[in-house]
Write a structure and sequence with these properties.
about 90 residues; mainly alpha; 5 helices
Length: about 90
């Protein structure tokens, strides 16, 4: 399933970069910030949008690659047993 998500994200990203005004702005800013600024492009807004999309894609990758295990809200051991195991695993007991 994650391979399909990656493929869809790749196709949509490629289409957005090649066929939209936003994609052309991204390519222009990536080619040279000063030149894009002299052309009148909103460089800071484009950079913010690119970083936001990058974070969104990283979150999507983390969500799609998480293991299908029990939720973290159900601990497998109590705090007391964890402390006991730590006490017995110490190297220099007095």
């Amino acid at each position: 399933m994650p391979a399909w998500i990656a493929l869809v994200a790749y196709v949509l990203g490629s289409m957005a970069l090649n066929f939209s005004a936003f994609g052309r702005n991204v390519l222009a800013v990536g080619g040279g910030e000063d030149a894009a600024r002299l052309m009148g492009l909103p460089v800071n807004r484009v950079k913010f949008a690119v970083y936001s999309l990058s974070g969104l894609m990283a979150g999507l990758a983390a969500f799609s690659s998480r293991p299908n295990s029990a939720p973290a809200s159900r601990p497998k051991a109590s705090a007391g047993s964890c402390l006991r195991s730590r006490r017995w695993s110490s190297v220099g007991r007095f």
